[in-house]
TrEMBL record:
GO terms of biological process kind: protein histidyl modification to diphthamide
Signal peptide: none
Pathway: Protein modification; peptidyl-diphthamide biosynthesis
The protein's name in its UniProt record: Diphthine--ammonia ligase
GO molecular function, one term: diphthine-ammonia ligase activity
Catalytic activity: diphthine-[translation elongation factor 2] + NH4(+) + ATP = diphthamide-[translation elongation factor 2] + AMP + diphosphate + H(+)
Family stated for the protein in its record: Belongs to the Diphthine--ammonia ligase family.
Length: 642
């Protein structure tokens, strides 16, 4: 890409230019903002010390330099920025606008990527034995030479200027009244990219390989799971067929949380030629209207699970989806569902949270730039959203962060890299967080033979931590592996993780029962303060017959045991926000499942949780139905207890 580099003269912006060139990008111009009438400016955004020597950068690199005087101030100092008149960020906008009028540019190079850059380093200071002085901009640097320079900068004279003579926190800086450039050598290449030849510098490809190698995965490829060719079909109930309407809405509100599921089906009217863009807009309008009817809004959505009938429609759906969000959109997971028999076109499951006084806060990490950290979003979503102690991660697929291309080599490197992305997003959002913070993990793969590989990767990379941390009350969460027809960008694996900011004080419970031959297993990972839980429900094949008992009997057993299990954990059935049912179209029909599940879960008349039905290509071997539940005690109860 053709890049304009923001330069302050400091080490970070200079090093970032080297990384841009190493990645194959072309720097075509430099840009700098300077203070008006003084050297030191107390700016939240820009380094200004040393600005009087920036003009030498243009000649040192052989590139045009664009400069603008800072007219605004630090007015909008929140974590998130919205356009604000007379703010210093607007000066940057006008500078880039001017450059675009003169030079063709596609990207901006900046020596920062994470909004929590300073916070994370301060939190890690004890771990690494560092002194945090300087991380707030107390120390500024000025680069005199760089491999990209044709000439180096020589200081002829300097003077110390005391900016503040405060006896406890004095501030001073160096001023360079006189400097000049000196040729480095006659054989310095004219082409900027050639100036890095022979240098050892890490590129995205190298760092991706290091990330892949850091994830443990040893698999016996001769023992991979094989696709099952026969399925046990649940006895049909009296209610069967496709939905009688083309829009189905499921909603559950419990305290500050609302879970909303909206699914659109092919219209029965053959004259209705609704495009996929129109379908997406109808779905989003339905979500918006439903929320507003409950006193909520789109900005209250913290996480979305998007299921599509055709992954080729991904871009078209995004074009409408993005119109409903501004800054810091919700995190999101996207997969293709096995909708071929149901007629479903798109399904959006939304976790919604309205801020309650004293009940925590919402934080979002929304990184859109290319880096060596983790992939930027490939759609209108954030990498992670945190509500109180719960972290909702976006689906992580194996893209190289610096190129946003799918890593080559098949399922093993893809599994390793995508799992590395999960780790990096967690640790960036919460200092010290790891895979052990995960409470509910849904791993989507595109072939049944990949299940063993993904499961092995997760087990091998949490087992060591598990053994070490169980003595401290730390346990890894529950995992579910499902096979779907396709994933974004043609990925073979995608990790969907819901985690906790504090993994201490969690425990696990298991219940196993038989329902007319079918094996029903419930696993629960719950906080010992009875605030939150994740539940995985597995319905296994009958051991003797091809056709198991009725669906009603299986669900009745399931609901009864779920209620008992939650009671052991100090929770109730009404605390279940959502039950996500992964099923095989060959085994059961969605309308049957919905009717029976709603009836079974609403036995006490207090309303069933939101239900999300996801037809898939295959489940873990031996399973005919899998469900995942997120259980949340109302947050306002937390505030009263504390």
């Amino acid at each position: 890409m053709r890049v304009v580099a923001l330069v302050s003269g400091g080490k970070d912006s200079c090093y970032n230019m080297m990384q841009c060139v190493a990645e194959g990008h072309q720097i075509v111009a430099l840009a700098n903002l300077r203070p008006q009438g003084k050297d030191e400016l107390d700016s939240y955004m820009f380094q200004t010390v040393g600005h009087d020597a920036i003009d030498l950068y243009a000649e040192a690199m052989g590139l045009p330099l664009y400069r603008r005087t800072i007219q605004g101030g630090s007015l909008q100092v929140d974590m998130d920025y919205t356009p604000t008149e007379a703010d210093e960020v607007e000066d940057l906008f006008f500078l880039l606008q001017e450059i675009k009028g003169d030079v063709e540019i596609e990207a901006v190079s900046v020596g920062a990527i994470l909004s929590d850059y300073q916070r994370v380093r301060v939190e890690n200071s004890k771990k690494f034995g560092l002194n945090i002085c300087g991380e707030g901009g107390e120390y500024e640097t000025f680069t005199l030479d760089c491999p990209l320079f044709r000439k180096k900068i020589i200081i002829d004279s300097s003077e110390k200027v005391v900016h503040s003579a405060d006896p406890f926190a004095p501030v001073a800086y160096l001023k360079f009244p006189k400097m000049h450039l000196k040729d480095k050598s006659q054989d310095t290449p004219q082409d900027i990219s050639s100036r890095l030849t022979g240098l050892i510098i890490k590129t995205g490809d190298i760092m991706v390989q290091q990330a892949i190698n850091a994830v443990k995965l040893h698999v016996d490829i001769t023992k991979r799971n094989q696709q099952e060719t026969s399925h046990t079909r649940l006895k049909p109930s009296t209610n069967k067929g496709v939905p009688t309407q083309d829009i189905v809405v499921m909603k559950k509100t419990h305290g500050a949380y609302t879970w909303l599921s909206v699914a659109l089906y092919k219209p029965e009217d053959s004259n209705n030629k609704r495009t996929i863009e129109d379908t997406a807009q109808v779905a989003m309008d339905t979500i918006k209207d439903t929320l507003e009817g409950s006193g909520l809004c789109m900005a209250d959505i913290v996480h979305v699970q998007l299921y599509v009938a055709d992954m080729a429609d991904f871009g078209k759906i995004n074009s409408r989806y993005k119109q409903y969000f501004s800054i810091n959109p919700p995190s999101r997971v996207c997969v293709k569902g096995a909708f071929h028999t149901s007629g479903k076109l798109v399904q959006l499951d939304c976790c919604v949270w309205r801020l309650q006084t004293g009940a925590g806060e919402r934080r979002t990490m929304h990184v859109q730039g290319l880096s060596h950290w983790a992939p930027a979003n490939i759609g209108p979503y954030s990498q992670v959203t945190q509500v109180a102690q719960t972290l909702f991660l976006a689906g992580q697929i194996p893209l190289c962060p610096s190129t946003m291309l799918l890593v080559e080599g098949g399922i093993i490197p893809q599994t390793r890299l995508s799992l590395s992305h999960v780790q990096r997003v967690l640790s960036a959002m919460c200092a010290g967080a790891s895979l052990m913070n995960s409470r509910l993990v849904i791993c989507y793969v595109t072939d049944i033979s990949y299940v063993q590989i993904a499961k092995g990767a997760w087990m091998q990379n949490t087992q060591v931590m598990d053994n070490i941390q169980q003595d401290e009350g730390l346990r890894s969460g529950l995992e579910t592996y499902v096979v779907v027809p396709a994933l974004p960008r043609g990925a073979l694996v995608e990790w969907h993780v819901t985690a906790t900011a504090d993994p201490a004080g969690w425990d696990v419970e298991r219940i196993w029962r038989s329902a007319g031959g079918a094996e029903v297993t419930l696993d629960c990972c719950y906080s010992t303060d009875s605030r939150t839980a994740a539940v995985k429900i597995s319905v296994g094949k009958p051991s003797t017959s091809q056709e198991c008992t009725s669906l009603e009997e299986v669900i009745s057993t399931l609901v009864h045991e779920l209620s008992d299990l939650l009671s052991v954990c100090g929770l109730e059935l009404q605390d279940v926000l959502v039950v996500r049912i992964f099923y095989l179209p060959e085994v059961a029909e969605e309308q049957q499942l919905q009717t029976v599940m709603e009836g079974g879960l609403n036995q006490d008349g207090r309303g069933a949780p939101a239900l999300a039905f996801v037809p898939v290509s295959a489940l873990e071997p031996g399973q005919i139905l899998t469900a995942c539940c997120w259980v949340q005690r109302p947050l306002e109860h937390w505030a009263r207890e504390t």
